[in-house]
Amino acid sequence: MAKVTFGVIGAGGIARRKTIPGMLAAPNVHLEAVMDVAKIDEIAAEFGVGKAYTRVEDLVADPAIQAVYIASPANLHLAQIKACAAAGKHVLCEKPLTLTAAEAREAVAACRQHGVFLQEGYMMKFHGAHQAIQRLIAAGRLGKIVYIRAQLSCWYPPIPGAWRQDPAKGGGGSLIDMATHLYDLIDFFAGPVRRVVAFTGNLVQDYRSEDAATTLLELADGGHATVDTFFCVPDESSRTRLEIYGSRGSIFTEGTIGQSVGGQMEGIFGLGDTGYDASQNKDVARTFQPIPFDPINPYTAECAAFADCILKGEAPVINGADNAIRTIELTEKAYASARDGRVRTL
Fold first, then answer.
1. 193 three-state secondary structure
2. Most exposed of 73, 166, 187, 237 (fewest Cβ within 10 Å)?
3. How far is 37 from 8, CA to CA, in rounded Å?
């Protein structure tokens, strides 16, 4: 099988924990080189990679590399995307693509100018359960989508040097880091989003980035969605649920949102044809059925999908440039709403 040769900028953190192992499992990807400012020889040895760089410019200048995965702090993304594009390297960049929508448009323009593809790392779309949900919604099994609730929280106490806790480096906290994953997923299921209002704050953690964010979204067809994301909820106390309600049924998942492969999913369908039930008894057993889904590693799938686009010469459809701009525009409007309490329209 033909393979695309990758390099990685920012090989620690999420790249080391999740994306590089996922990348190595993709049949159409070859990992040629890794780059980081710390522990790079250790990382290269861990994954059996022959080239280890400590400077971005050295990795970008490597003629063997066709594509670059960027997982550095978000404030470095724009310059690194532009450097990769100028060198003719396709770019798979972690989210957020950039700190602002203006920067995102600049990054997209640079990639288009140099004829390289750009894909953003919102990998949750590739999870087997979420792929199945999208197909069920598209097939009309839920009827009109009325309401979606998506939840993602973790315990993220102060850590010296953690760039996500400094808005100058990460753009913000739980909203830009976690809520944007769920904005993107909701858009995938039933978007686009039409209006947004958000609340943010620091409830527990003592750092500059917000540790709490709750968002209300209105979808283009009138449906509603809420997103709750917190850096101050212990991991063990949150079930990380996704709830999707339609006029003919609903789907619930637990544990599918996040960085894993598994979780549980159940649904109920074929409703909405009866009259009003005046008894309104809610303490009755409902006939939800388990919904099977393929155990897809979302990191492997996103890397394989990007490599496939490069091999075919076709721009990414999932998580492509236009989606990246739309997501950061929504993010900016959510933060603006949190500052002044006003509803924002996209």
1. strand
2. 237
3. 12
Q: Is the pTM of this model over 0.85?
A: yes
List of residues 6+ apart from 88 with CB closer than 8 A: 114, 115, 116
Q: Is 203 helix (H, G, I), strand (E, B) or coil?
A: coil
Q: Which two tokens stand for residue 268?
A: 């109920």
Instruction: Return the sign of the alpha-carbon dihedral for residues 99, 105, 108, 110.
Output: negative
Residue 80 CA, chain-centre distance (Å), reads: 20
In a 10 Å sphere around its CB, with 0-12 CB exposed, 13-18 middle and 19+ buried, how is residue 159 labelled? exposed
DSSP string, 223-279: -EEEEEEESBS-GGG---EEEEEETTEEEEEES-SSS-S--EEEEE-S---S---TT
Which tokens hold the place of 21?
């192992």
3-state secondary structure 65-91: CCEEEECCCHHHHHHHHHHHHHCCCEE
Mean pLDDT by 10 residues, the chain (346 residues): 97 97 98 98 98 98 98 98 98 98 98 98 98 98 98 98 97 98 98 98 98 98 98 96 98 97 97 92 89 98 98 97 98 98 98
Superfamily covering domain 124-293+328-345: Dihydrodipicolinate Reductase; domain 2 (3.30.360.10)
Which three-class secondary structure state does DSSP give residue 21?
helix
Say whether 124-293+328-345 and 4-123+299-318 share the same fold.
no
* Amino acid identity at 286: R
- Rounded Cα gap, residues 137 and 266, in angstroms: 14
Residue 329 half-sphere exposure, CB side, CA atoms within 13 Å? 15
**H-type alpha helices, 139-179:** 167-170, 174
Q: Are 62 and 30 in contact, with CB atoms under 8 Å apart?
A: no
Q: In what order do the strands lie in the sheet with 29-35?
A: 51-53, 29-35, 4-9, 67-70, 90-93, 118-120
Domain residue limits, the chain:
4-123+299-318, 124-293+328-345
CATH topology of domain 4-123+299-318: Rossmann fold (3.40.50)
